[in-house]
Amino acid sequence: ARADLGVLGMGTMGANLALNFADNGGFTVALGNRTVEKSYGVRDSNPDLAPRLVPTDSIEHMIQTLKSPRVVVIMVNAGQPVDDQIALVLPHLDKGDILIDAGNADFNDTVRREAAVRPTGVHFVGMGVSGGEEGARHGPSIMVGGDRAVWERLKPLLEPISAKYEGVPCVDWLGEGGAGHFVKTLHNGIEYADMQMIAEVYGILRDGVGLKAGAIGDIFADWNTRGLSSYLVEITGVTLRETDPDTGQPMVDVIVDEAGQKGTGRWSVIEAQKLGIGATTLEAAVSARGVSSRRRERAEAARVFGDIALPGAQFHADRDGLGELESALECAKLIAYAQGYATLAEASREFGWNLPLGTIARIWRAGCIIRSAFLDDIAQAYEAGEVVNLLQAPSFRDRIEAGQANLRRVVAKAALAGLPVPALSAALSYFDDYRRARGTTNLTQAQRDLFGAHTFHRLDREGTFHHRWPQV
Ligand code: 6PG
């Protein structure tokens, strides 16, 4: 036995993770894949690392190759393929071995799998890995769940391969059971919201101002030098400035406006709903992808109702106009992250995880898709003291104060111009709802009590009441 760990699944993510373990960790890695040739292919196309890459021909072969206690990392598509791999490898593992699912699992599946594996004495760990292909290869952000004691054993394996933010590894244990995958799911929900808001501002600049892709790319590149500085804003500039080699047009102009999704964004919204958290910007982002996929229907609706972007949209690409958009996007982004964090905080209470919210922000500062300096501010807010909601954290209050008027103007102007801003407007409405001491669900309660005797509470008295309403 000579391999420190095994990686099952030689798709791009699995292969890159294996290469990362060999390269940055200096570990010897057993490679496993259903079609065996792929494992040999990974070794042969990386001659520098070949001495530390051991292709295996079967599960039995991988098991023989691994040092004991064994560590096996599964990196396959979420869903049934994970169950298939577990069924394949588990019978060969011994008590004390560690089996990791490093894919984008639904945390409910992780909870179920951990419970199923536990009686065997094998430790099952659900682990979120973010950073796309590049991250997997050179340094992802890693969100570890499962038993805390197991983390102590995994730490020396994972710290060397993780991203570093000012030298600090972007990996940590976040909580028992499905905590790692839950946090990864919320990371993706926030990713969706952030991307959707960026796309909405792109839409304003394209359809409301009439700018070409390249010019919009320049604006995002400029924004990336200040408060909005982040990987997502950076790649927005890069993608918008790219030219299609075939047609000479901007790349984005030849790409079909139908967004794909693999499920994590949707799960984040479902879980937020189950927890009673209004993650409305995340919801808006998931819904917008759904609407985008109905392209034919949209074309028909555009014919019937007229396309968007009425003339005279009050958006301008001058200094003030761009400043207003930049500030609005910053403000809305803050609200989206606050919603994501509110979901994490509630899940932590509900599932008894004691999620370290500051640490989560810290391990998201580098490696992952939503990485940005802004996450450092979030980490600091959590480390400065108790945070009821990020919107109320002192360091964020001022930013919201500074940005909300701009967000309000942008949403209002977009509405008047017929430009859709589902996530930006969701952020604004949520903020207005959240800060309103006297809401309107007193009416909802009255209605519920009228038609279903659902009862209500009174402002002036303790207790639960039912009123004899006039029946209609
Ligand atoms: C990451 C990404 C990655 C993927 C998401 C979203 O953190 O590296 O989040 O996991 O981008 O799953 O993918 P979809 O947009 O296809 O749902």
Automatic annotation (TrEMBL):
Domain annotation 6-phosphogluconate dehydrogenase C-terminal: ranges: 180-470
PROSITE patterns cross-referenced by the UniProt entry: 6PGD
The keyword Cell inner membrane is annotated on this UniProt entry: no
UniProt-listed SMART domains: 6PGD
Enzyme class: oxidoreductase
GO molecular-function terms, A-Z: NADP binding; phosphogluconate dehydrogenase (decarboxylating) activity
InterPro entries from the UniProt entry: 6-PGluconate_DH-like_C_sf, 6PGD_dom2, 6PGDH_C, 6PGDH_Gnd/GntZ, 6PGDH_NADP-bd, 6PGdom_BS, NAD(P)-bd_dom_sf, Pgluconate_DH
Known EC number: 1.1.1.44
Active site: K184, E191
Keyword Hydrolase included in the entry's annotation: no
Recorded family membership: Belongs to the 6-phosphogluconate dehydrogenase family.
UniProt-recorded name of the protein: 6-phosphogluconate dehydrogenase, decarboxylating
Species this chain originates from: Aureimonas jatrophae
Species classification: Bacteria, Pseudomonadati, Pseudomonadota, Alphaproteobacteria, Hyphomicrobiales
